Amino acid sequence: MSPRAGLDRKVLAAVERLGRALRAARQDVATRHEVSLLGLSVIETLADGRPRRVGDLAAELDVSQPTVSDAVAVLDRRGLIRRDRDPADLRSTLVALTARGGRVAADTATELAPLLAAGSGTATDRATTLRVLLGEIARLHAAGVITVNRSCLDCLHYRPPGTRSRARCLLLATSLADRDLRVDCPEHQPIPA
Ligand code: SF4
Questions:
Q1: Domain locations in the chain?
Q2: What is the model's pTM?
Q3: Which pLDDT tens digit goes with each residue over 22-41?
Q4: What are the backbone angles phi and psi of residue 107, rounded to the nearest 5°?
Q5: Could you read off the pLDDT of 50-61 as tens digits, one per residue?
Q6: Which residues line ligand 1 at a C-beta cut-off of 6 Å?
Q7: CB-neighbour burial class of residue 155 (10 A; exposed 0-12, middle 13-18, buried 19+)
């Protein structure tokens, strides 16, 4: 194995390990709130206040529509989400959190905060890690492994840094240092194929 291939494997192994640890912590939180892990992901996704169609939730969470429909139905029965008519298409419904669902979302964020805040390394290290991880997500999105990516590195408005210029967001007319890169931006616009 080449040194580069060995390094790639170690990076993947490290990401997988982090993923397993985070999944276990999230499962604990989900169990406490008596929702499934997918149900918790639906609640966290809707916590940004943007109602979504079930199909959009499925794409964002990289699961099938029937699977997310089942999870949404359970959350609906528990009074954690509500369905409203989509004003853009009255045959469709939009899913949003109820006040009770919002409280679960807030509790979840609080419960997971210590895990996320316990990192080591400088702020610069963290910002570099963020950029590198977003680059990997963009690569997997281009390969079709990740369905939805609303981060800067995959956005029509993003301009990468040049030899003498910083990265920029043309929409917000601002420079983007690594620490400013957004993982899930409401203004994100996909790059046309
Ligand atoms: S619109 Fe959002 S995602 Fe796109 S470059 Fe600007 S900040 Fe990043």
A1: 3-117, 123-180
A2: 0.80
A3: 899 999 999 999 999 999 99
A4: -60, -40
A5: 999 999 999 999
A6: 152, 155, 157-158, 169, 171-172, 182, 185, 187-188
A7: buried
